[in-house]
Design goal:
Layout: H1 3-16, H2 34-41, H3 45-51, H4 54-57, H5 62-78, H6 82-95, H7 100-112, H8 116-129, H9 134-146, H10 150-163, H11 168-180, H12 184-197, H13 202-214, H14 218-230, H15 235-247, H16 251-264, H17 269-281, H18 285-302, H19 306-323
Helix pairs in contact: 1-7, 2-3, 2-5, 3-5, 5-6, 6-7, 7-8, 7-9, 8-9, 9-10, 10-11, 11-12, 11-13, 12-13, 13-14, 14-15, 15-16, 15-17, 16-17, 17-18, 17-19, 18-19
Length: 330
């Protein structure tokens, strides 16, 4: 997961998982933090921050004090001040070193900023206290995937899903690891589960198309990419659909799909290549040569693929030589 996705996941996780400090009812609380908690839940971060002055915080103890640091960090995050949020989480952890809410928040913000060497031990501390904490397993799964430890990453996602089996994003991220592992059938199942929970996610349909193509289900993959494009996946999904249709031997459909790409992205090398292949399939060698010239011109700008262009050029030359009764040596 890249940094922007990690940051988005952090925001989603914080919104979806309210602080667990309220579970510890046996600890001191005089209820003074509760009106500020209500402001937080009402989506008023600036009012929360204005209320949590150093003077007020100095009067808090136990659960209320821990909750104050959680609210400070969470609402600083909401208004785009992550560095200050991290400082509040760190201060809270220094006072409450075994509190999983503070630990996981500190770890998540470090991870979102690419500081995985610092985030990992914090996630591990969370699991030492609460072995099934899903945020910690998710964070470790993301770190392990980034570092290429795919089996470990998959195991962490599986542990996370034991606790949050209704989180579409966790199923989707788990499926990405399975795709990396080339476990395409299991990835397919995980993506279908994600779509059951969140049916209109374009990126999930794109991933499902990759899983189905890898299993040989080319028509299904093309249909998934068409759905993804309809949900806003854009030119990339339409381009992939044209290539999958070409791979499936559906030349007329592939050409139509390529034409749709070229309307939005004139000179797109991949779409031009599909058109050239489609013309070649129709035995239109002259047309294929014209399209290939356009591909070569576009490829200089886009780097579509020297090997693909060369292979198509050789195929056209071979067929042209056969038509002219010449021998052609590759």
């Amino acid at each position: 997961m890249n940094r922007s996705r990690a940051a988005a996941a952090l925001t989603l996780a914080l919104a979806a998982a309210p602080a667990q400090a309220w579970r510890m009812f046996s600890e001191p609380s005089d209820g003074r933090i509760r009106p500020i908690q209500a402001l937080h839940e009402a989506g008023k971060p600036r009012e929360v921050l204005a209320s949590l002055t150093p003077q007020f915080i100095a009067t808090l103890r136990g659960t209320d004090l821990r909750q104050a640091y959680i609210l400070l960090g969470d609402d600083l995050q909401k208004i785009g001040r992550p560095d200050e949020a991290l400082s509040q989480y760190q201060l809270g952890v220094s006072l409450f070193p075994k509190n999983v809410d503070l630990l996981v928040r500190q770890a998540m913000i470090l991870h979102a900023n690419g500081l995985d060497d610092q985030a990992r031990p914090l996630f591990m501390r969370v699991l030492a206290v609460e072995p099934k904490h899903w945020n910690a397993h998710q964070g470790l799964g993301e770190i392990d995937r980034r570092n290429g430890f795919l089996d470990r990453a998959a195991a962490h996602y599986e542990s996370a899903l034991e606790s949050v089996e209704t989180r579409a994003d966790v199923w989707r991220d788990y499926a990405e690891v399975l795709l990396d592992l080339r476990e395409y059938k299991t990835a397919d199942l995980a993506l279908r589960r994600s779509l059951e929970l969140e049916p209109r996610r374009a990126d999930t349909f794109v991933l499902l198309a990759f899983a189905r193509r890898s299993q040989g289900y080319l028509r299904d993959a093309a249909d998934d990419l068409e759905t993804a494009a309809g949900l806003g996946a854009g030119t990339g999904a339409r381009r992939a659909r044209a290539l999958v249709l070409m791979e499936a031997g559906k030349f007329d459909e592939a050409k139509a799909a390529a034409d749709a790409v070229l309307k939005d992205a004139p000179g797109d090398a991949a779409a031009l290549w599909v058109r050239a292949r489609a013309r070649l399939a129709d035995d239109d060698l002259e047309g294929a040569q014209r399209e290939l010239a356009a591909v070569k011109s576009a490829d200089e700008r886009e780097g579509f693929g020297v090997r693909a262009v060369r292979a198509l050029s050789m195929e056209i030359n071979r067929l042209q030589s056969r038509r002219e009764g010449k021998s052609y040596r590759e």
